[in-house]
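Today's session is about reading a structure prediction critically. Students often jump straight to the picture, but the first step is always the sequence itself: look for stretches that repeat, for charged clusters, for runs of hydrophobic residues. Only then move on to the predicted structure, which in these notes is written as discrete structure tokens rather than atom positions. Here is the chain we will use throughout the hour.
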Amino acid sequence: MTSDREMSEDEALEEEGAPSSTASAMPSALAPADLLRTAADPALTEDFALALLKRADLSVEVIEQLAKNTNALKSRKVKIGLASHPKTPRHVSVPLARQFYTFDLMKVALSPTVPADVKVAVDHVLISRLKTVTVGERLMLARRASGRVAAALLLDVETIGTKITDAKTVARETRVTQAALENRRLTEALVINSVLRPAATAALVHAVAQHPKWSCRREIRAALLRTEHLSLARALEFSHEIPTPLLHELLTNSRLPPQIKDQLLRESQASSPPAGC
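Below is the predicted structure for this chain, in token form.
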């Protein structure tokens, strides 16, 4: 659970990158029993806890003991350090992540030290909060979060759960979609999955169909031809590179309006060479 005031990304980055004044004071040659005692010490300070978490050789037992240290867990930095440590088990890191600020969740999910299954779980926590974050926060997440979060934000208008009725609101929400399409972690498979979702809006289909990067991908063009919102002009353009038999098969499972399907098939047959040529 987050606090009443959501921390800004700049504040989160500054705190995360701030050097610890006594981090180097943790002895590097402590025996396993000493590490356990240190982790359980009720007087353990934030600096010493962070120094402990800098050790790559920590055992799961030490990490679990530190996760039970209520004094150490008063520190947001210690919680983030615990969740980000490569040895932290999922049953410790995921419950901790549920207490994090939005941008802390993003950083944990992007950390190279976090196991893949934990990253997925943290992303799911973050995605579950998208209904409650501001447009500015969604814009930042769309640009910088993981591909999974960016893909969820491609459906941003639906995620908000409001009916878009005015041009100003449409323009505001489309910014989030456009930002997500520029996310360098977004993959072709995620884009295809998003446009084929029943919740995919006309705005999303149009944005992908006009995007200079994604609209050139053959598999994405094929996926767009299966949606209900693709314009006739784009549908004709995308169908030209697809052989007639394959286009027939693709349109069988397409949600395009019947008149557009018929037009595509007529154009395809007209451009096909006669049999025997």
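Discussion point for the tutorial: The CA atoms of residues 102 and 137 lie 8 Å apart.
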